[in-house]
Amino acid sequence: MFESVSVLIDEHAQLQELLADPAVHQDAARARKVNRRYAELSRIVAAYQRWSGLTDDLEAARELAAEDEAFAAEIPVLEASIAEAQEALRRLLIPRDPDDGRDVIMEIKGGEGGAESMLFAADLLRMYIHYAESKGWKTELLERTESDLGGYKDVQVAIKSSGSDPAQGVWAHLKYEGGVHRVQRVPATESQGRIHTSTTGVLVFPEVDEPEEVDINQNDLKIDVYRSSGPGGQSVNTTDSAVRITHLPTGIVVSMQNEKSQLQNREAAMRVLRARLLARQQEEQAAAASDARRSQIRTMDRSERIRTYNFPENRIADHRTGYKAYNLDHVMNGALDPIIESAITADEEARLAEIGDNA
12, CA 20 to 30 Å: which among 112, 207, 219, 258? Predict the structure, then answer.
C-alpha cells in the first residue's frame, strides 16, 4: 500500500537539495514555487513516516506477544493508530489544487435587495477581514464603491498569507466562498420590523504570483483615466487619478479609484485583471479537459446560492455541505473555520469517491 509515496519521497529529497542552493533563491518566483511544493510534500513524508513507524511497531508487538502475552494489549491500540494514520495519509495523497498556496483577490458586490444588499456587503467584508486576522493573513483594500447608506456597491480586497504551506494558503480556504450569499434580517431602513431577504455576490480569484504567468498584450488593453467619484457621484478628486482598463479580447473591465495616484490605481487594476484572466484560463481548461479538475463544492457557477445568514434565528447554513449552526453572531466576527472545514471535507470526500470509482 502507498507504493507511489516513494516517488514523492524522492522528489522531496530533491527539493530539499534545491532549497540549499543559493542560486534558487535568486529567482523569487522559482523559490516560491519550490517552497510551496516542498511544504506540501513535507506533510506527506511526515504522515508516511508515522504510518510506516506504527506498522513496524505493530509487527514487533505481535512477535513479542507470541512470547509474552503482556505485549498483546498493545496490539489493538497500535491497530487503531495505524488506521487513523492510514486515513490521514490517504487524504494527503488526494490530487491537490495547484493553486492552494496562492493569495487571493476577493470581490464583494451588492445584489438583490438594494441598500440592504450593499450594507450586507460591508458586513461580509468585515467578516472576511476578521477571519484573515485570525489566520495571521494580511488584507489590502484595493477598491471600493460606497453606497449612500454606508455599505458597498462593490469592494475588492487582496488577502495574503506569509507562509509557504499550500494547506494553509489563502486560496485553499477561501476558494469555497465564491457564489451568492443570502441574508435574512430586518433592515435598518425597515420601520415595520419585517424580515427582508437580500443577496450579495462574492467572487474569489487566485492572485498571480508573477506578471509573466499571464501573458497580456498591451495592444489588447484600452486604458481610460477619469476623476474619482464618491457616493451619489460627487467628485472626490481634482485630478484624473481613476483608471479603467478594458481587456479587449475578453471584454473584462477593471476600474480603480481607491488611490490618489493614477500609477497606483493602474497597478492595482492590472493585479485584478491578471487574476481574472488566470481564473478565466483555468475555467476554460477545466471545461475542455475530459477529466476536468472541478471541485464538487467550489462551483464554477457564480450565480449559485451557497449560504444563508438568518439573523432572527442567529442561524448560518451552507447549502452545499448541509452545515448548519446557530452562532451567526460569532461567524460574522470571523469564526468561519467550521464552515470552511465542512467545505474542505466535502470536497475531499468527493475526490476520494472519484478515485475509488476510477480505481
Answer: 207
